[in-house]
């Protein structure tokens, strides 16, 4: 009998790559979105796997809807990838962010307590919880959230840990550092940079790339590798939390330079820094220490920033040439 996985927030970048990975492992996949009749599931479509899963409508803030889907699907493994995922947007929509992430996670945990069918839970945590990391952060580094998103992720992390200890649930968080792919929406900086650079290289010479703070440093990884880490977290015998990172940090300016180099342009001639795009509070430097995942899960990121920039540019060039008439 194949294992059953329930992916909450299946329509996003991570949901699509995780679906692909678990299908290849023989899982039966159920995925949720707020309204599965309305959502186009473009990411699943672009990977050619939309028809291979069953979808359900589920709002994490509505306890009854979570309970109904969990009771119906009876999953062996649940992956919580739902909730508002943009740090920038969380400054404008703090309540929606907090409710979808913190209350949403609490609703899943409460349902797990009540259900007779035992299921393992993976919760998508975030490196945002650490705030600035002068030294690479590991699983015992204290949290210092610097955005409403980070505060909500910290609340969900500690709720998962508490329910694991109090009720003996197999529930874990992966503390995920930034992870990118061609499925990232434009709202995130890597996709914004790559698609603008490709448009400029393809002839839109007058277009300018407007960015906020480009001196920040991030530990950028490759999303398809991070969903493999999520799966490994749940296969580990004991429920534990893991930092998922590359261990390397690069500045946004270096990322921009790498992308423009890949399309044959000098970035400094095409980029404007706009202080209106700066966040009210920012993480200047973010880097993780993935030693625990390497040792206990046998997981290691193989792609770091330069490989990621090049891969994103190749994918965008291919996408654009596929939609342009010959
Ligand atoms: C780990 C964490 O990773 C992601 O959150 P994020 O790091 O905020 O991602 P981002 O791509 O929005 O920003 C990256 C950096 O780039 C700076 N930046 C400059 N100029 C622009 C700009 O124009 N747009 C954006 N979006 N950012 C800009 C911005 O200020 C920030 O310092 C999510 O997956 C999140 O879910 C998550 O958990």
TrEMBL record:
Name of one Pfam family that matches: GDP_Man_Dehyd
SUPFAM superfamilies: NAD(P)-binding Rossmann-fold domains (SSF51735)
UniProt keyword list: Lyase, NADP
Homology family: Belongs to the NAD(P)-dependent epimerase/dehydratase family. GDP-mannose 4,6-dehydratase subfamily.
Needed co-factor(s): NADP(+)
Protein name as catalogued: GDP-mannose 4,6-dehydratase
NAD(P)-binding domain span: 6-309
Catalytic activity line of the entry: GDP-alpha-D-mannose = GDP-4-dehydro-alpha-D-rhamnose + H2O
Lineage: Bacteria, Pseudomonadati, Pseudomonadota, Alphaproteobacteria, Rhodospirillales
InterPro entries with a match to the protein in the record: GDP_Man_deHydtase, NAD(P)-bd_dom, NAD(P)-bd_dom_sf
UniProt EC number: 4.2.1.47
Main function: Catalyzes the conversion of GDP-D-mannose to GDP-4-dehydro-6-deoxy-D-mannose.
